[in-house]
Specification:
With about 120 residues, this protein is an all-beta fold. It is about 0% helix and about 55% strand.
Length: about 120
């Protein structure tokens, strides 16, 4: 079955950096659009960015210029490099996958907590 497993979350001071990973199994990774979402306490889930199967990326305005998504199709893994972190980036970060020709994210990870202290 399909599994997405996030890792790399933790506690960091404002201005610091973290790198999240999303390891996928049970799917043809190279054919999937992969995305990062986040959800802060008391807030709705928020789109962070996505990587299309060819590797091109798109970001929410709130993270543009600070976050970078990359993927290694040979390792079935997507990454989220987060720089210049702000307290408002504190959230549970989730990775998600959808087949490249569909609009719905079918698969989700369990999430990893990112906490940015001021």
């Amino acid at each position: 079955q399909v599994q997405l497993v996030e890792s790399g979350g933790g506690l960091v001071q404002a201005g610091g950096s973290l790198r999240l990973s999303c390891a996928a199994s049970g799917l043809t990774f190279s054919g999937y659009t992969m995305a990062w979402f986040r959800q802060a306490p008391g807030k709705e889930r928020e789109f962070v960015g996505r990587s299309w199967s060819a590797g091109n990326t798109y970001y929410a305005d709130s993270v543009k210029g600070r976050f970078t998504i990359s993927r290694d199709n040979a390792k079935n893994t997507m990454y989220l490099q987060m720089n210049s972190l702000k307290p408002e980036d504190t959230a549970v970060y989730y990775c998600a996958a959808r087949w490249k020709t569909t609009a719905i994210y079918d698969y989700w990870g369990q999430g990893t907590q990112v906490t940015v202290s001021s």
